[in-house]
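Input/output pair, single chain:
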Amino acid sequence: MQKKKIVVLNKLTAMNRSLEEEVQRLKQIPVDAISKAKQLEKNWSESNLKRAKKEEELRNPMLDFSRIASERDDFQTRSAEVAA
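Output:
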């Protein structure tokens, strides 16, 4: 009878250890998820900043081109008026 109790106690101890390990793994899941979410949020913010900078870089040459095209049109109009 004593041997059966020892065997049962050993099995319960092993099962308890296994459950404790599983609980620790389960506790780690939300911690990892929160960490990943924060990293993704940081990456998203950095990506938005980079995109905004690129848009600004593209907008500046377009504004310069528009200004030059407008000056060219004005020059052509004045040239046409003088020639007429």
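The chain has one helix and no strands. The mean pLDDT is 89.
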